[in-house]
Write a structure and sequence with these properties.
Distance between the termini: 81 Å
Helix content: 10-25%
CATH topology: Umud Fragment, subunit A
Structural class: mainly beta
Largest sheet: 8 strands, antiparallel
Order of helices and strands: HEEEEEEEEEEEEEEEEHE
CATH class: Mainly Beta
Number of domains: 1
Shape: globular
CATH superfamily: Umud Fragment, subunit A
Strand content: 35-45%
Number of strands: 17
Number of helices: 2
Radius of gyration: 25 Å
Length: about 260
């Protein structure tokens, strides 16, 4: 005869343990999906400096599209060396706002606008940008008051709308006091490299300063991480995330979910 089992003497089914195991699996899958998205699709990026004002402000949070330019070891998440060169490569367009690794220190991310393509000659003369000998047209579009660079008071900046040969238009700022970057020698962009500039023209360490002098210099294609496409959040730099009582007043609501151009 088969002996009947006594439910009271059996070890009870541990539904609690099964639920915990399912939660762990869900978390593992969520982390794996997030890693894949960050590695191959979109990566969040925040703006730490004012070099791209007025397009981007300190405290803006962006999604950077890694799909835009293909993939290199430098565009992989967390610096994982996945490959040599670049696969599914797509050339950036003039006017793109792009995140890239600093040529002399690839642990540092920069964000600037693509101004010069391989083979171009770029020069700034009396604040005017020249591409291949032709002045880039722009017109005055008001003034902006910002804190001065020495931290004392405010300084007035002229705002212009600049339009590149291919049609991309955006705002740039020029300080009344100017800078040595308002007049540069001609730069001939090497093959496989790009010339990057900040929209805050007098307060941007960019390709106008050679890498040998502590600047950005020409940026290799492999160093491009992706194109900045969407601003999903913006927080005034005076507030911190942990200061929850300030957040409703510190969020820049007008800048949420804006496309970047």
């Amino acid at each position: 005869m088969m002996e009947e089992k006594n439910p009271e003497t059996e070890k009870p089914s541990t539904k609690k343990d099964e639920g915990f195991a399912e939660n762990v699996k869900t978390m593992i899958w969520a982390v794996a999906i997030a890693l894949v998205i960050r590695t191959f699709a979109f990566e969040p990026f925040n703006i730490p400096s004012g070099s791209m004002i007025p397009t981007l402000l300190v405290g803006d949070y962006l999604f950077v599209s890694k799909l835009s330019y293909g993939y290199s070891s430098l565009s992989a998440a967390y610096g994982v060396p996945l490959l040599d060169g670049r696969i599914f490569a797509e050339e950036p367009k003039r006017g793109d706002v792009a995140v890239f690794k600093l040529p002399l220190d690839t642990s540092v991310d920069y964000i600037k606008r693509v101004i010069g393509l391989p083979g171009d000659t770029i020069q700034v003369q009396n604040n005017i940008l020249f591409i291949n000998g032709q002045a880039v047209p722009r017109y005055r579009d008001g003034d902006v008051e910002m804190p001065s660079q020495n931290g004392r008071g405010a300084e007035n900046y002229a705002r212009f709308v600049e339009t590149l040969p291919e049609g991309a238009s955006y705002h740039v700022l020029e300080s009344a006091s100017g800078s040595e970057l308002d007049n540069t020698p001609p730069f001939v962009v090497p093959s496989g490299h790009y010339f990057m500039m900040g929209d805050n023209r007098d307060n941007s360490l960019d390709s106008r300063v050679p890498a040998s002098k502590g600047g950005v210099g020409y940026v290799p294609f492999e160093n491009l991480v992706g194109r900045a496409d969407l601003m999903f959040f913006s927080l005034s730099p005076e507030a911190r995330f942990w200061q929850f009582w300030k957040l409703p007043f510190a969020i820049r609501y007008s800048r949420l979910f804006r496309m970047i151009n």
